[in-house]
UniProtKB/TrEMBL annotation:
Gene3D superfamilies: ABC-type transport auxiliary lipoprotein component. This is ABC-type transport auxiliary lipoprotein component domain-containing protein. The keyword Signal applies. It comes from Paracoccus aminovorans. It holds the Pfam family ABC_trans_aux. InterPro entries: ABC_trans_aux. The keyword Signal applies.
Amino acid sequence: MRLTLALAACLALLGACSNGEKTARYLIDPPSGGQRVADRLGTAELKDVSLPEYASGGEVSWQTADGAVRSNTKQLWADNPQRAFTLTLARTISDMSGATVIAEPWPLSEPPRRTLEIRVEKALAQADGVYRLSGRYFVGDSASGGANQARSFDISVPLGGEGPAAIARAQSLAIAQLAGQIATLSGPGRSIRTSATPMPRIDDIFSQPLPALEGS
């Protein structure tokens, strides 16, 4: 009898632990129909966004008054944070500027003109009620005379509430602001001209006609 009761209690506990309705998942989803800017990127491959460890895990993180970064195993992101951040940023830049920005790997036969790399240093819902997104972004242009960019960003969005839903909304708005900054190539930093002649692509080499044979 005691064994039966113990087994029943264990099964009930396992059932409670596996109840999916007790786990909340949140999307990164910037609002559509925002600002429109000129296309300054053309075609660009966006490398996987580099995120801090606390921001790349599956749990939604926030900072408490004691300065600690905490999370809850029942409050999760709906997708891998790095993947979601990268894909969302690429789509948002494309939508607002008309550029063709695609997350790696590049799927088109024609290679991109530019590469984008974003290194996030902070992506955190702070204890002061502000979501902070800061770091640096780089635009590589290998064409002779191309303009390479090395710039920083520091974006703050009021949380406007408490809990993971407010964090998800603020992060989505911060990503939209970052997309606007990258699309316009703005922010503190500098532009560096490409001085070296780019190496020819392997397909360009083999597409050239062969020289005539001597005596022909």
